[in-house]
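Notes from the 1:1 (GR / supervisor)

We went over the backlog. Supervisor wanted to see one worked example end to end before approving the batch request, so GR pasted a single chain during the call. The sequence is below; no edits were made to it. Supervisor asked that the structure be written out right there so they could see what the output format looks like.
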Amino acid sequence: MHKTISEAKAFAKELVDACKGQKLRIMIAPPFTALSEVSQVVKGSNIMLGAQNMAQAESGAHTGEISPAMLKDAGVEIVILGHSERRHIYKETDGLINTKLKLALAQGLEVILCVGELIEEREAGKAESVCKTQVTEGLKGVAESDLAKITIAYEPVWAIGTGKTATPEDADDMHKSIRKVLSSLYSETAAQKMIIQYGGSVNPSNVKELMAKENIDGALVGGAALTLDKFLPIVKYKED
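Structure output shown during the call:
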């Protein structure tokens, strides 16, 4: 819940200008109110437009919700589902997230599926089982052929907005564990092809070490994505 329409447009314009020629996939997910106007700013650029959430229904009596058709109409290409704040503040269940994910795919949107454990779950030795459940339930009923439209983001809840970061080794271990789950659900080929991002206080000082790990394929950046002086060094980490 950051940035007015004018602030989001200004940010997007600077980002587009600064990222010309970048080969990496780059996405921004401004608030719903700014999507339509930011869409015009990023159109024709290498910046994808994402949404932070989506309703579980196509239309109807869902006051305050945003449908996939509305997102597409605003220029959105990809939607973030199951973010830890949606799970823990707004009590979204694995079943609800799975319904949203399948609807998003059916409506032609790509999905970033977020999974991750609480600090008490990690301390109790349940981190892997929590993430396994979230991945398994989140992808229930999804065909292997649809996995190319899905990215998984591992975001340890205790490392979001806290300044704490899982060590690169801890993060890589969990990404490896998620690949094992995908291999058992689908195939080894599907598991290796899956893009698994790390999201948990990624910043300019730790991005290189995280991205150097074998199983970490990208970053879902939170607070550090709010200002270009922090976000651009993350986007351009290979250039330094």
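Supervisor's comment: The domain at 5-235 is CATH 3.20.20.70 (TIM Barrel).
Batch request approved.
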